[in-house]
């Protein structure tokens, strides 16, 4: 294992770097896109069920198929990392839009009423009251989406762009476990690290959750 | 880009490699991994939820399991074990375990503890508390975990074709290898439709097995 | 409730279909975007490779040879089968990659390679006539790596197999394994049927002469495998390569396929020097370092260039 790593340090690092970009960029963009969509699902209750179902269908499109089709739909080059990024944005939105809607729906109506009574208009109430209260749920969804993305990127290796997934295909072609194990370990570590960062970030921006303790 | 492959009737007979046979093999992988994964995860999740021991494991199993890249795991297993069904089932089962385990745990853990106390108070033994109170009441949460596991396995079982097995991934991998996009499209559509249909079936199952007192319908 | 869900599901599926249909005019199968990708500056060259070990080793050798001449190289290896990487070459995602003259000819020529063409020079001449616009090939090397039909010693003895012709009477009892693209290529099942009259009982889509095929063959999960002639697993496992008396598999000399835009005297000079030194024997030796000794491709490529005075 160590000889593999020392011999292929550059390759592994490059794969890791690509993996980080391919996985995390879609999380950020997907999150930004999912917020308004999720909100619409709450603002217009008749939209909620269609939203949930469309998200479900989108999420069940096999990633490999999406990776292959996006160049055709977007006019991108076939090996462009953009294809992977857009595919993962779609998955992220599919996961998060529902979570955002669920989080906002779960906000105690009493809280919303109090805010209204205090004079909050709809938008300010959303940004200052409802979103912060829904944040723990949304962050939980964000963790799932991030971790899922990090694991999904590697499928891109089947079409030549896949971060650490390239270590899988390379090891597989030579029937050689070292690169595969290195890839899996790095991918899991990366996911763990990203997860941890979100958890810590969540604690930082939702300090009140720490005092509720057993109430949840 | 067209639907010709999907709509060609000759791809819908029961010959080798036709869409129906691929659906059957695909569902077979899905079914096996769901059964094995649930058989492993459900008892552990229920036990953790019931006793409260090992909660840390239950909470983190979810994200840890999700972070294992299926393709890597599958290629590792094929490299170690050779070609066959076993490596595919291992990789897919690993997908099933976290959501089922976590939801079984969460379903029981989040029950109103007064209900459990009441059950103990009327003289139920721990086993009875688990099977007659906790499990039925945890079913809605448990089923949602199971359904998300099923959805994910249906989409992911396509990787089986990357290591020479069948399933609907055949359409994706072969279509890609021979540059036949209409075949890839057929694969994607059939997988998505299959996932939706399976979810509908499971939603109906959930309606049957969840006690009417809980579903508030 | 069920009905709305079903309706939504159907609508979403239709929407997906409609969405994909929108791209109809940009059908990836029609190669009408001639050299549209010119994002790479002339000093930087993107080298690609197919998804098997030898292609990657050759691509690495090309890359290092170019770097030794001061050319900036980007590596985009392990892309996939020919059908996929040719498209990557045409859309400018990659600039060059190692190819095999015969296989490339069969893939490009309508209806497969012309009859009677099987010798290296004839193949090259025929190939040059059918290259996609905007691409060219450089000098070909003496190194050959052919598709083969290979069986285990036990199978060869049992059915008394020496050539592909011998398969004809027994093929209906045998299973065959190769990359999925073999189902469609002339130099695959189609050619075997029309040229040799060989039709196998079953075909298992595995990989292009890779570990799946080799292992399936050794473990008896397939009877006949498509393995490349330079593969070290043939000698390691005492496999029997069946002769190809009717030349279904053409000459397969290795040569660089390059986008015309990326070609210049420095690039072609560096690559021609590599091709001049490359032989079947030394390729097999260096490939074994990757396949058997599990050495890193980069190290092996460097050793090849140093040993041959190219870097």
- Mean pLDDT score of chain C: 84
CATH homologous superfamily name of chain A?
Answer: MetI-like
**Count the helices of chain A. How many?**
10
Helix content estimate of chain A: over 70%
Relative helix content of chain C: 40-55%
Low-confidence stretches of chain C: 1-41
So what's the overall shape of chain C?
A: globular
Q: What is the domain tally of chain C? A: 2
Largest sheet of chain C: 5 strands, mixed
Task: List its traits.
heterotrimer, B: 217 residues, mainly alpha, MetI-like fold, 10 helices, 78% helix, C: 311 residues, alpha/beta, D-Maltodextrin-Binding Protein, domain 2, 2 domains, five-stranded mixed β-sheet, three-stranded antiparallel β-sheet, 10 strands, 42% helix, disordered N terminus
Helices, strands, pairings?
The complex is a heterotrimer of chains A (216), B (217) and C (311).
Chain A: H1 2-7, H2 9-43, H3 48-59, H4 63-74, H5 81-105, H6 109-117, H7 122-152, H8 165-173, H9 177-205, H10 209-212
Chain B: H1 4-7, H2 19-51, H3 55-67, H4 70-81, H5 85-109, H6 113-121, H7 126-156, H8 169-177, H9 181-209, H10 212-215
Helix pairs in contact in B: 2-5, 2-7, 3-5, 4-5, 5-7, 6-7, 7-9, 8-9
Chain C: H1 2-22, E1 44-48, H2 53-68, E2 72-76, H3 82-90, E3 96-100, H4 101-108, H5 120-130, E4 135-137, E5 147-151, H6 153-159, E6 175-178, H7 186-196, E7 202-205, H8 211-218, E8 224-228, H9 233-236, E9 240-242, E10 254-259, H10 265-277, H11 280-291, H12 297-307
Parallel strand pairs in C: 1-2, 6-7, 6-8
Antiparallel strand pairs in C: 3-10, 4-10, 5-8, 5-9
Helix pairs in contact in C: 2-10, 2-12, 4-5, 11-12
């Amino acid at each position: 294992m160590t000889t593999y790593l020392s011999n292929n340090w550059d390759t592994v690092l490059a794969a890791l770097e690509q993996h980080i970009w391919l996985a995390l960029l879609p999380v950020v963009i997907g999150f930004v896109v999912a917020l308004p969509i999720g909100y619409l699902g709450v603002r217009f209750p008749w939209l909620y069920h269609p939203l949930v179902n469309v998200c479900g269908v989108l999420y069940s499109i096999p990633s490999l198929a999406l990776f292959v089709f996006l160049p055709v739909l977007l006019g991108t080059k076939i090996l462009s990392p953009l294809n992977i990024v857009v595919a993962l944005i779609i998955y992220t939105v599919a996961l998060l839009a529902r979570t955002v809607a669920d989080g906002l729906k779960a906000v105690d109506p009493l809280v919303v009423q109090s805010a209204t009574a205090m004079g909050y208009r709809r938008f300010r109430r959303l940004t200052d009251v409802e979103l912060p209260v829904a944040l723990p749920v949304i962050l939980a969804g964000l963790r799932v989406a991030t971790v899922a993305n990090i694991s999904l990127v590697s499928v891109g290796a089947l079409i030549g762009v896949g971060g650490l997934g390239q270590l899988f295909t390379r090891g597989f072609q030579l029937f050689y476990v070292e690169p595969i194990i290195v890839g899996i370990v790095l991918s899991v570590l990366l996911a763990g690290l990203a997860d941890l960062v979100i958890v810590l970030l969540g604690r930082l921006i939702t300090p009140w959750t720490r005092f509720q303790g057993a109430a949840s | 880009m067209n639907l010709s492959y999907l709509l060609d009737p000759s791809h819908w007979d029961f010959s080798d490699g036709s869409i129906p046979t691929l659906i059957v093999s695909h569902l077979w992988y899905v079914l096996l991994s769901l059964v094995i994964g649930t058989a492993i995860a459900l008892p552990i999740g229920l036990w953790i939820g019931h006793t409260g021991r090992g909660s840390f494991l239950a909470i983190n199993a979810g994200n840890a399991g999700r972070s294992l890249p299926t393709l890597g795991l599958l290629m590792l297993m094929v490299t170690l074990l050779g070609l066959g069904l076993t490596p595919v089932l291992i990789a897919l089962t690993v997908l099933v375990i976290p959501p089922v385990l976590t939801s079984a745990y969460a379903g029981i853990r989040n029950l109103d503890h007064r209900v459990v106390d009441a059950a103990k108070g009327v003289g139920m033994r721990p086993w009875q508390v688990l099977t007659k109170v906790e499990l039925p009441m945890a079913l809605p949460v448990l089923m949602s975990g199971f359904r998300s596991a099923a959805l994910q396995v249906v989409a992911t079982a396509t990787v089986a074709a990357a290591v020479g097995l069948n399933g609907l991934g055949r359409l994706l991998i072969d279509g890609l290898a021979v540059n036949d996009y209409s075949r890839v499209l057929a694969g994607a559509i059939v997988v998505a439709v299959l996932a939706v249909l399976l979810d509908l079936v499971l939603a109906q199952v959930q309606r049957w097995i969840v006690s009417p007192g809980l579903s508030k319908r | 409730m069920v009905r709305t869900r079903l309706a939504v599901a159907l609508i979403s599926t239709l929407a997906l279909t409609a969405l994909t249909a929108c791209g109809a005019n940009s059908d990836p199968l029609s190669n009408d975007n001639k050299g549209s990708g010119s994002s790479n500056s002339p000093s930087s060259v993107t080298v690609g490779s197919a998804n098997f070990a030898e292609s990657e080793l050759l691509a690495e050798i090309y890359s290092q040879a170019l770097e030794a001449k001061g050319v900036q190289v980007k590596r985009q290896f392990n892309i996939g089968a020919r059908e996929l990487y040719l498209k990557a070459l045409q859309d400018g995602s990659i600039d060059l990659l190692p190819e095999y003259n015969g296989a490339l000819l069969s893939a490009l020529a309508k209806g497969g390679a012309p009859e009677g063409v099987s010798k290296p020079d004839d193949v090259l001449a025929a190939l040059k006539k059918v290259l996609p616009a905007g691409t060219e090939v450089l000098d070909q090397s003496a190194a050959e790596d052919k598709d083969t039909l290979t069986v285990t010693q036990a199978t060869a003895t049992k059915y008394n197999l020496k050539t592909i012709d011998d398969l004809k009477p027994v093929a209906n009892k045998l299973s065959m394994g190769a990359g999925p693209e073999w189902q469609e290529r002339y130099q695959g099942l189609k050619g075997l049927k029309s040229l040799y009259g060989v039709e196998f009982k079953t075909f298992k889509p595995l990989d292009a002469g890779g570990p799946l095929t080799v292992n399936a063959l050794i473990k008896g999960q397939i009877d006949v495998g498509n393995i490349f002639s330079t593969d070290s697993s043939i000698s390691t496992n005492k496999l029997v390569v069946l002769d190809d008396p009717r030349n279904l598999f053409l000459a397969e000399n290795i040569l660089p396929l390059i986008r015309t835009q990326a070609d210049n005297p420095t690039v072609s000079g560096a690559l021609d020097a590599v091709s001049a030194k490359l032989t079947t024997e030394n390729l097999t030796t260096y490939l074994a370092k990757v396949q058997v000794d599990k050495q890193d491709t980069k190290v092996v490529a460097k050793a090849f260039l140093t040993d041959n005075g190219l870097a």
